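Design request, tokens follow.
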């Protein structure tokens, strides 16, 4: 293919008939993968999310979003404290475990912080947060947290792109 023969884009307006196409278009943006953890009346809970972003340095704020239809939604909607773990390339098995089981941390070594939030080791970064806001956003809610403690290390990230999970090559 030459520069004179550009790839033709797919053009559509999002509606109930194009939800798969919209999901595929969203998948064109490569993201890191996080595991969010919290304490609940049912014990330690976790969820995989790629909807994580920094918001502010002063104060230190981050956001992530959770699907209202998720069975995990009630746990994270109610959580006043949580931790966001940015996964390293070698943590793909952890990602798979958490995506399959809200209580996957029962089989994963972790510690609890002073707020009872589960903390997973060996992540590229970890943000221990206190929830300061939640905003309605269609079929999700956006949760904003103030970062209380952070830990980080060097390494390669685990990423999500085009419906696939893996390290950056």
């Amino acid at each position: 293919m030459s520069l004179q023969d550009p790839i033709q884009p797919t053009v559509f307006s999002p509606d109930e008939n194009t939800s798969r196409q919209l999901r595929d278009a969203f998948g064109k943006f490569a993201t890191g993968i996080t595991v969010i953890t919290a304490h609940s009346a049912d014990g330690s809970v976790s969820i995989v999310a790629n909807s994580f972003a920094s918001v502010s340095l002063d104060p230190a704020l981050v956001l992530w979003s959770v699907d209202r239809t998720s069975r995990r939604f009630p746990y994270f909607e109610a959580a006043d404290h949580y931790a966001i773990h940015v996964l390293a390339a070698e943590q793909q098995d952890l990602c798979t475990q958490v995506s399959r089981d809200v209580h996957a941390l029962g089989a994963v070594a972790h510690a609890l912080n002073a707020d009872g939030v589960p903390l997973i080791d060996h992540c590229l970064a970890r943000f221990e947060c206190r929830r300061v806001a939640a905003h309605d956003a269609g079929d999700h809610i956006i949760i904003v947290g103030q970062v209380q403690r952070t830990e980080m290390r060097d390494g390669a990230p685990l990423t999500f792109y085009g419906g696939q999970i893996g390290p950056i090559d």
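Comment from the thread starter after seeing the answer: thanks! The chain is about 15% helix and 45% strand.
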